[in-house]
Structures are given as structure tokens and as C-alpha cells.
Amino acid sequence: PYELGGGDVFSTLLGGSGPPGSAVSFVSEMVAVMERAHPNPGHLALAELERMGILRSVITQNIDNLHREAGNSVIIEVHGNVFRLACLGCGGKRLMEREEFLVSGKKLVELLERADMAGLLELASRCPCGGISRPDVVGFGEPVQDMPLAIKEAKNCDLFLILGTSGTVYPAASLPAYAKRAGATLIEINASGCYFPDLVDLEIIGKTGEVLPRIVERVKGMLA
Predict the structure, then answer these.
(1) Which of 31, 51, 56, 151 can bridge 105 by disulfide, Cβ–Cβ 3.0-4.6 Å?
(2) What class does CATH assign to 39-79+143-223?
(3) 202 bridge partner residues
(4) Shortest CA distance to 163 belongs to which of 186, 197, 137?
């Protein structure tokens, strides 16, 4: 996960109060990070497990769109997706491709630096209904997205993988408990230790980008 700044930044972009320059620095950093970010072997391994018919869904707190780029199709993004635009008028949503996102992000930085309100309004007017669109991410004080669906998936799985999370951000951190109570087997993979010792059936200390591809190869061998 990326630590990109405070949760009130998007309210600043929409005209709310905030420290001068906070939006510029946040968006500049975000665009730079996203430009460098690409699916790693862990993302690709999860997509392969889905193609094999083993993985049903991915629940993520990340907003970076990397699971989609890797090839997963059923993704529950509880904190939203910065590549997706949500219209404040009609409520419609549209997912941007990487190039469109980067071009728009760099344009946004330029407009913010110039304090060009007319340009910002034009850039934000991206919906066919004429309404203003914003990044479809969870801002400070906003509820998470699709949590009922995430809970349903947790309750209905046979195996629940906990990958690289510290388990400190709620309500997403409550999902392993839902899975456990429903009878699922829980496996935690984390390079920095086990954060759900009372719940997991197996803990693997290691980087997800290294462990998951090995699991995929082992599963392929078992199915051959």
C-alpha cells in the first residue's frame, strides 16, 4: 500500500478548506508514484489463481488499480480506486486507463499550481450529464465502499488469504474474523510478521511477491 498523504486532500481538490499547496504536493506525489507502479509478481499470481478457477475475488484497501491491471476481474475496492471517476451529479462512474489517468493527473497539477479555477472546473466536467467528477476514493470521514459485499465474500469462502496487511484499518480488518466464524481456513502471508495470530491456521513470513508465485506453481503441480 502507498502512503500518500492526509485523507482530506480530495475535499481540498473539491474546494474545501485545507493548507495552501497541500493539493499540489499530494497530486504531484500520487501521479509520480502511479507512473512508476506496475503489477508485481504477487498481483500476477492472484490473477493466475483466478484464471485457474481457484480464486473467486480480491478484497483490497489499495486504490492503485494494480489488481485490475494484473488481470483480476472480481475486485472489491473498499477504499475506492483513484483511476475511477465518480460524478457528483448523476452518480455515474467511469474507469480511466493508465495513460488517461497520468495525462489528467499531470494536467491537474499544472492547473492547481496556477490556481486556474476555470481550468479545474473544465477538467472536472468529465461526465456526459455535465456534472462534476471526482476521484472515486474514500476521503476523510466518508464510509468505505462495498463493505457488505466484502463481508459476504468473507463468509462464503473456503480459504481466506490475508496478504501484507497490518490489520489496523477498520472495518476491513474485521473481514478475517467473518471468514473464520464461517468456517474458512485462514492463511496469512506477510514479510513483517503475523498480525492475526488468534485467527490464522497458517502463517508464512515472506513477501507476497515472492511467496504467491511459488504457491501458484505448487498448485499447478498438484493439478497436473
Answers:
(1) 31
(2) alpha beta
(3) 187
(4) 186
Distance separating alpha carbons of residues 78 and 70, to the nearest angstrom: 18
Quick: pLDDT tens for 165-215.
988 999 999 999 999 999 999 999 999 999 999 999 999 999 999 999 999
Which residue, among 2, 31, 37, 7, has the nearest Cα to 109 in the 3D structure? 31
- Assign residue 199 a region: left if phi > 0, alpha if psi is -120 to 50, beta otherwise? alpha
Return the sign of the alpha-carbon dihedral for residues 200, 203, 206, 211.
negative
Measured CA to CA, the distance from residue 29 to residue 43 in angstroms comes to 23
Instruction: Kindly list the domain boundaries of the chain, sorted by start residue.
Output: 39-79+143-223
Catalytic residues: 79
